[in-house]
Amino acid sequence: MRHFFGAFLLGMATLTVMPTEKVLAGTLTGQPPIVIGHRGASGYRPEHTLAAYELAIQMGADYIEPDLVATKDGVLVARHENALAILNADGTLNLTDTSTDVFERLQFADRKTTKVIDGRSITGWFTEDFTLAELKTLRAIERIPGIRPQNTQYDRQFAIPTLQEVIDLAKAQSAALGRTIGIYPETKHPTYFDSIGLSMEEILVSVLNANGYVDETAPVYIQSFEVSNLKDLNELTDVSLVQLISPSGRPYDFVVNGDPRLYRDLITPLGLAEIATYANGIGANKNLIIPRDSRGNLLSPTTLVDDAHAAGLIVHAWTFRDEDVFLPTNLQGNPQEEYKQFYQTGIDGLFSDNPDTAFAVRSTLVPEPGTIFGLGFVPLLGWLFRRRK
Question: Which UniProt key words apply to this protein (predicted)?
Fold first, then answer.
């Protein structure tokens, strides 16, 4: 069974040191909540690019989050989906789910195809049909230009990074800034990739091991919306694992395996107790923590954070964005207040497209870390509180 002290260690390693007192009562470890750069600083740069990740770090993010998909030759790269570009039913370009310029590349026109991914029929271009060398010729574009037109000025400037390149950036920035930058990879569509002979778990663990990320003291969380692949990862690695929780539906591996449980069944006390046997925490949609009414206004918090903490699980909330289209109705133009209210629930961290805002609000609620504990203390505690499988 996993022990929450792994999360405690990660909290210390990420912030480098502990503050002198526990200011935000309610976090599982007593440490300030971490800021996770969601796909990098994707509010300011095209998502899942080294430029977006580096900017997130400069803005104060403790972790950067690469969604991982596989290439034809078995290399993990950072993309929100394995679909590089998607076409609508009428053949026009989907302007909310296209993240590269592959649709402009005549040499790859014959790679356009239709696939069923997690039960959804999609026409477009897919990472698993390209070698890494071919993918490296493509360039990233802003995925939601209608909402973030300012980001289109960076279109076609940045390549698709590999997981190793993201790790190299995190390590280089850690050395340059004197604070540990963690990585927070998500395995995308693991059941699908298993079905086509590109199992992601072994590749991911191999890369992590090669970089010295081998246990809960490592500044790494692996997340997934599926359950069975996290259980597999629990047997392959000792780094921290996080079960993602959607507000509706059920894990796709449950669909395939005939398991009738929904995501909401996973956040009952019984469900949380089961998660604690294979993961260190949950990554919950923020509406499960503070729901909204029919008009989109924030209501009172649920008991989810307390329930998860009672099961020994950390809670990371997703996703926070500054634009009004994403904000609660009663907080239009005031993303800072949304962060504040969620921080005050005792969450252990959050994913943000705007890590500068997340960092600034956190700084008003907790003191910036002092110099009580250094990183040298982390491995010792990791040895003392290793989880049992």
Answer: Glycerol metabolism, Hydrolase, Signal
Cβ partners under 8 Å of residue 315, min gap 6: 28, 281, 282, 284, 289, 304, 305, 308, 309, 346, 347, 348, 349
Residue 78 pairs with which residues in a beta bridge? 68
CA atoms within 13 A on the CB side of 368: 7
- C-beta pairs of 288-291 under 8 Å, 24+ apart in sequence: 288/245, 288/247, 289/315, 289/317, 289/342, 289/345, 289/347, 290/341, 290/342, 290/345
Grouping H, G, I as helix, E, B as strand and the rest as coil, residue 152 is: helix
Which residue is it, tokens 């989050």? 65
pLDDT by residue (tens digit) across 270-292?
A: 999 999 999 999 999 999 999 99
Indicate the residue type of 253: D
Radius of gyration (C-alpha) of the chain in whole angstroms: 20
Six-digit token string for 295? 């008009």
Strand, helix or coil for residue 22: coil
Beta-carbon neighbour count of residue 285 at 10 Å?
15
What's the gap between Cα 61 and its chain centre? 12
